[in-house]
Amino acid sequence: MLEEKIHDKKPLYSKTAARAESSRCLFCHDAPCITHCPTEINIPQFIRQIANDDIKGAAVTILASNKLGYSCARVCPTEVLCVGACVYNHSDNAPIQIGRLQRFAVEVAEERFGFLALLPNKRPPSGKKVALIGSGPVSWSAAAELALLGHGVTIFEKKAVPGGLNSLGIAPYKLQKKDAIKEIEWLSELGIELRLNNEISANSVGSLVKEYDALFLGVGLGEDKLLNIDDLSGPGVYGATALIEQIKNDAHFDLSAVKIAHVIGGGNTAIDIAHELKLLGVEHVTMLYHRAEKDMSGYAHEIDAARKSGVVFREHEQLKELVRDQNENMHITVFDSSEQKSYKTQTDLVALAIGQQKIIDLAEALGVNLDSMGRVIIDEQTGRTSNLRVWSGGDCCSGGKEVVNAVQEGKIAALSIHEYLVSQKNDAEVASA
User: Fold this and answer.
1) Distance in angstroms (rounded) separating the CA atoms of residues 215 and 209
2) Taking a C-beta distance cutoff of 8 angstroms, is the pair 408, 38 a contact?
3) Alpha carbon of 129 to those of 143, 166, 206, 210, 417: distances in Å?
4) What torsion, rounded to 10 degrees, do the Cα atoms 261, 272, 88, 26 define?
């Protein structure tokens, strides 16, 4: 796999390094790192446990709040979340590397004790069943909580590979597919049933409504959006998320002939694929953004890292035309709005990172309300939709946030689903008495 050529951005700490880093923590009483973690992990507590060589206790603390604590430790933008809130940022000292300590605790503890030993015991079977559509982080978070509460849980995934964004959409310098799958295998030990190659469509979802006591929509986002330009459907042009998926999942995918690449967009996905292409050896990688660089939605630390790797950023520039000559060589026309002129240049690859389609048909088939942007509307306190037997969370609701946000939304929805299932069970017991 191409992704295996890319080195881990934040490698696993050694025991000595983890103890040294954890010993720097001030264990703040009002710990701002906790309030900046969407899943509210008790960060000072697990760091103190590492410092005291209680690795199992540290992992238990992490997983109590975040069942996907392993992947979140690696993919979270800690620089703008917990690490960004560390009090050391207001001094001459480097902030505590919370993500790397979190990875160390979960990875080492799982290897020593097994994943189930780090979680509370499952409750007795409730007799209730929940179907989750989509196998991304939000669904695994919800499924893990529901399984621990004693409910039967089945995840339906249309692709042959589980994990959604974690497995196929995260740049491999943050998380490789094999590591995302490893976490899914841990979670599956809870008795979660996974049905791959099993697409739930607007026509088939009705059967799930009849068979299961509650449904959870964790379908994420759809295909990459395309520009209204001729020849964009030809070879050498990719949606950014589709390209990342090929790099992570297609053993035969080859970039050796690509010397020049252009990435269209200014968000984190655009930055990820640009940085990834550079790390994979593409000689010239240029990002074209139609506004000023300061307006890019991508994180500043990610932009800085991509630039240091050799990615060139060009602001106020738009792709206007793509043509292929008789030998299928590609040339693009770019309009520079700051200069009010166009220029042409050669390219071997174009990656479009201008957003993704929304999954609308399935939601509409379930009678779930959508907002004007095509996002599923939920009660943020419960994750419940306008269909009182359907819950949702993740990117299909937010339009695209962090994995850790999806994990929290899955956890919130699971607790609400549990309350609903318990109330249904109690009502049935009263009716039969």
Assistant:
1) 7
2) yes
3) 11, 25, 15, 11, 11
4) -150
Where do runs of H (alpha helix) occur along 86-190? 98-113, 137-148, 177-188
Domain boundaries in the chain? 2-118, 129-222+357-432, 237-352
The answer to whether 306 and 281 are in contact (CB under 8 A) is no
Q: What is the rounded distance in angstroms from the CA atom of residue 58 to the CA atom of residue 162? A: 27
Picking from 64, 44, 55, the residue whose alpha carbon sits closest to that of residue 13 is 55
Mean pLDDT score across all residues of the chain: 95
Cα 168 to Cα 178: distance, rounded to the nearest angstrom = 10
Q: Give the count of alpha carbons within 13 A of 106, CB side only.
A: 25
Q: For residue 2, give every residue at least 6 positions away whose Cβ sits within 8 Å of its Cβ, in sequence order, or none.
A: 247, 248, 253, 255, 280
Residues 285-322 pLDDT 10s: 999 999 999 999 999 999 999 999 999 999 999 999 99
Coil, strand, or helix at residue 226? coil
3-state secondary structure of 153: strand
| Cβ count within 10 A of residue 224 | 20
CATH architecture, range 237-352: 3-Layer(bba) Sandwich (3.50)
Contact 104, 401 (CB under 8 A): no
The β-bridge partners of 153 are 130
CA distance readout (Å), 281 to 86, 149, 275: 35, 48, 10
User: What are the structure tokens assigned to 219, written together?
Assistant: 């379908």
Tell me: pLDDT of 48 over 80: yes
Question: Please, how many CA atoms are within 13 Å of residue 19, restricted to the half-sphere of its CB?
Answer: 7
Dump pLDDT digits (tens) for 311-321: 999 999 999 99
Half-sphere exposure of 208 (CA within 13 A, CB side): 25
Report the number of secondary-structure helices (H) and strands (E) in the chain.
16, 13
Q: Return phi, psi of residue 312, to 5°.
A: -100, 130
Neighbours of 223 (CB within 10 A): 11
Which residues does 399 contact at the CB level (< 8 Å), separation at least 6? Answer: 221, 358, 373, 375
Q: What is the CATH number of domain 129-222+357-432?
A: 3.50.50.60
pLDDT higher than threshold 90 for residue 121: yes
User: Was domain 2-118 assigned CATH 1.10.1060.10?
Assistant: yes
